[in-house]
């Protein structure tokens, strides 16, 4: 299925923006944490889970979403948040723990929340699926064509929340789409060592719903598959599971020694980098001028750089404000 050129350009620029954002976060997060890794040091303390290499999962489906559709994300949330259109300045300030952040610096990297674009991040493995289920139920009760998307890692598909939520979504015919990002590892455990089936879309049959599989981290295929799932959901035909075979270029968290990975693994994967391949497609098949691609990259990088500067220039919350806005 041919993808409109404007959608392809949007996906390329968005993937580049996500990659630039994560690369900048590697730098910011690493400040002050060496020579001995100290998780609490530097301008961005705490754990940090980056999505470098997993961009197609986010852009392929978010290319079809509107501001009325809900997205929930796990502890590796930046690519989903950026593709959904979150305020990049406020998101970055939140990660830096600044008062100008989405939650005034109280949520941090794993608890991003922006009601303006209907995005939330549960942080705990599998926790976002029931949130998306609730949004899907609300969409049906309101008699709208809104959909809810829950992004999870493949390890979360072995959690009870996955099965309970999909059972309810199937039973009540809700517009829920669960996107399983199979990045090959649940922390340090290979998928085949923890899951008895080759891909989690096969589990759809158990609930009487649709299942789709996307190979080779392909953003175009993810776009096409997502279009089918979303059209079904908007038409009242119920939930779907999409599993995309993607790749985590970095460790489970920044500072992860990655002793479980082959040293040759990541360089090999980068030969199949989805951003490079999509850029090549735009030039060779859609005859886009290289200068236009460079302009998209420049625009994306500028927005990211400005967001990081905004976060660094913002103030930390005052200690006496710690309990503000916690109670309704």
UniProtKB/TrEMBL annotation:
PANTHER family: PYRUVATE DEHYDROGENASE E1 COMPONENT SUBUNIT ALPHA, PYRUVATE DEHYDROGENASE E1 COMPONENT, ALPHA SUBUNIT BACTERIAL AND ORGANELLAR. GO terms for biological process: pyruvate decarboxylation to acetyl-CoA. This is Thiamine pyrophosphate-dependent dehydrogenase E1 component subunit alpha. Keywords: Oxidoreductase, Thiamine pyrophosphate. Its cofactor is thiamine diphosphate. The keyword Oxidoreductase applies. InterPro entries: DH_E1 (IPR001017), PDH_E1_Alpha_Subunit (IPR050642), THDP-binding (IPR029061). Residues 47-320 form the Dehydrogenase E1 component domain. GO terms for molecular function: pyruvate dehydrogenase (acetyl-transferring) activity. The keyword Signal does not apply. SUPFAM superfamilies: Thiamin diphosphate-binding fold (THDP-binding) (SSF52518).
